[in-house]
């Protein structure tokens, strides 16, 4: 583990925010509730869009579904990421070096890359498969990768409490 990373974690562990998260009886559970709300919105929106790309509800236009769900996913991320960072603070030294946590962060990055490739490449010709026809293989593969990766992120997130 790089020295820069561990010394950053050591610093995080001593910050006033970390102290407050350790000492307050209600702050940690309140932040965890925000984290749960955030990832439910994020992963929920992503999963519903992925199921459409896998061929469910072909009568619903993909573009309209994206216009409805993408802002929800971004709002969920805007809740989950900062609250997750706050949850890391009280045990930054131990959680921050654990393969479970680092694996989760890597998978979140992969999910983001997969979504970016879909929206900038695969989804560009959506007008050809917007409604009533099955999406192309590349779109279905992107949906499958997204579903598998988000389920893995949730699994690793849950394991943090047990294994870190
Ligand atoms: C953005 C996508 C994210 C998803 C889908 C996600 C998902 C989860 C899940 C399912 C849990 C278990 C919650 C529980 O059992 O109560 C969790 C816990 C946790 N997450 Fe995240 N998370 C995300 C982002 C982050 C980020 C960016 C960080 C830190 C920088 C983070 C740090 C944590 C920590 C420290 C816990 C353990 C909390 C505990 O068990 O008390 N998460 N996350």
Protein model, in words:
The chain has one domain. The protein has 7 helices and no strands. Helix 3 packs antiparallel against helix 7. The longest helix has 27 residues. It starts with a helix and ends with a helix. The model has no long low-confidence stretch (mean pLDDT 96). The structure holds protoporphyrin IX containing FE. The site of protoporphyrin IX containing FE has 21 residues, from helix 3, helix 4 and helix 7. The site of protoporphyrin IX containing FE (HEM) has 21 residues, from helix 3, helix 4 and helix 7.
Distance between the termini: 16 Å
Number of strands: 0
Radius of gyration: 18 Å
The unreliable regions are none
Query: Beta fraction of the residues?
Result: under 5%
* Overall shape: elongated
Number of individual domains: 1
What is the string of helix and strand elements? Answer: HHHHHHH
Mean pLDDT: 96
Helix content: over 70%
- Classify the secondary structure makeup into a structural class: mainly alpha
Biggest sheet overview: none
Please tally the helical runs, counting DSSP H or I stretches of 4 or more residues.
Answer: 7
The molecules bound to the chains, other than polymers, are: protoporphyrin IX containing FE
List keywords for this structure.
elongated, binds protoporphyrin IX containing FE, mainly alpha, 164 residues
């Amino acid at each position: 583990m790089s020295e820069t990373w561990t010394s950053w974690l050591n610093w995080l562990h001593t910050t006033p925010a970390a102290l407050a998260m350790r000492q307050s009886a209600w702050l940690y559970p309140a932040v965890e509730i925000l984290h749960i709300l955030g990832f439910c919105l994020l992963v929920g929106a992503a999963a519903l869009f992925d199921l459409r790309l896998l061929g469910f509800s072909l009568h619903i236009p993909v573009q309209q579904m994206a216009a409805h769900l993408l802002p929800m996913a971004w709002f969920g991320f805007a809740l989950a990421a900062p609250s997750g960072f706050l949850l890391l603070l009280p045990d930054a030294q131990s959680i921050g070096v654990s393969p479970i946590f680092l694996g989760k962060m890597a998978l979140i990055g992969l999910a983001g890359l997969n979504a970016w490739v879909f929206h900038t490449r695969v989804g560009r010709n959506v007008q050809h498969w917007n409604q009533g026809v099955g999406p192309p293989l590349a779109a279905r593969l992107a949906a499958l990768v997204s579903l598998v990766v988000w389920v893995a992120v949730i699994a690793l997130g849950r394991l943090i409490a047990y294994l870190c």
